[in-house]
Amino acid sequence: MVSLLPAPGHRRLLASLATAACLVPLLAVPAAAAGAMPPPVRPEDGGDHLTVVVRHAGAGRDGTYQVRCHPESGRHPDAAGACRALDSHTRWGEDPFAPVDPGALCTQLYGGPATARITGTWAGRPVDASYDRGDGCRIARWDRMVPLLPRMGDPA
Question: Based on the structure, what is the number of domains in the chain?
């Protein structure tokens, strides 16, 4: 008759593996949850403050806008919406203002002459990012920041 029980020396190994398998999901949950939330705002950071300069986007869109988040304020047509867009794209360990990866394959779709520059402080870090709509990847990058950046294609 063949025994289905592990040999005495293997029982301890199997128990250790079972314990480790149970802990893996517990370790993964905080990392996933942390990535879905914006970083905490510390009082010493003085809140998030950005200056957005938009050019060649058309009448009613061009200009210099100030926006503060946490709490929302500033000379921006939709400060609350701009802060929500920023919060939704902020993840630990990632730069929400990162340029398009130079190795990215992008459609050769021209989105117009609009440019923008965003400077200031976000999540306690300095920001100096430039935007344009020169190809599909850069259009998508711009569109992720709407309404911080103006929506293009709609009448002003």
Answer: 1
